[in-house]
UniProtKB/TrEMBL annotation:
InterPro entries: CD8B (IPR042414), Ig-like_dom (IPR007110), Ig-like_dom_sf (IPR036179), Ig-like_fold (IPR013783), Ig_sub (IPR003599), Ig_V-set (IPR013106). Coiled coil: none annotated. It comes from Helopsaltes ochotensis (Middendorff's grasshopper-warbler). The chain crosses the membrane at residues 154-177. The gene is Cd8b. This is CD8B protein. It is a single-pass type I membrane protein. It is found in: Membrane. Keywords: Adaptive immunity, Disulfide bond, Glycoprotein, Immunity, Immunoglobulin domain, Membrane, Signal, Transmembrane, Transmembrane helix. GO terms for molecular function: coreceptor activity; MHC class I protein binding. GO terms for cellular component: cell surface; membrane. It comes from the Eukaryota. One of its GO terms (biological process) is adaptive immune response.
Length: 190
């Protein structure tokens, strides 16, 4: 699947204005470098932020500040981290690390960054219900989900195999029962 070769962490970041943060992207295949994009919910579009090649050279998107965004590489081209400094509420969005491999774009699972002026104070209630809002995914990650562990491509053949196995066991049990019965009749006739 798409996620098997590219891991992005963390899933969510909540931080305050003027802080800095880091998003990690781990790769398990050959690549020429890592692209970073941000999906803006309010502007409803993807923005190209930066591309960092395996030599450490960065290419920035239009109007993207090099003081704000930087990419660091670790563990011999297998791990990249996007550093964002001087955070502002307008930096909120879902960040994706991406690699290009054999004319496909492999996408990370996304990191939802929320920048607020003041962090909410913890409530004094003993139990709070947390509802998760669905995160908008682009078509590539939806395509990726068709090869996931719960896709019809996996469970239909699995269900068919289990059905055949159960059918085989029932037939075998029936044959053994008939054989035992014949043997019993043969013994009691003599």
């Amino acid at each position: 699947g798409f996620y098997a070769t590219l891991t992005q962490t963390p899933e969510h970041i909540l931080t305050q204005t003027n802080n800095k943060t880091e998003i990690l992207c781990e790769l398990k295949q050959e690549h020429a470098g890592v692209y970073w994009y941000r999906w803006s919910q309010e502007r409803q579009h993807f923005e190209f932020l930066v591309f960092s090649n395996t030599l450490g050279k960065a290419t920035y998107g239009t109007n993207v500040s090099q003081d704000k965004f930087s990419v660091r590489e670790a563990r011999s081209h297998s791990s990249y981290s996007l550093h964002i400094s001087h955070l502002h509420p307008s930096d909120s969005g879902t960040y994706y690390c991406t690699v290009s491999q054999s004319s496909q774009l492999l996408l990370g699972s996304g990191t939802q960054l929320r920048v607020v002026d003041a962090l909410p104070l913890p409530t004094k209630t003993t139990q709070t219900l947390v509802t998760r809002k669905p995160v908008l995914r682009i078509t590539k990650s939806k395509a990726a989900s068709t090869t996931g562990p719960c896709s019809p491509l996996v469970w239909i053949p699995l269900a068919a195999a289990v059905l055949l196995l159960v059918l085989g066991l029932v037939l075998t049990a029936h044959r053994l029962y008939r054989l035992r019965r014949r043997l019993w009749l043969r013994i009691h006739r003599q």
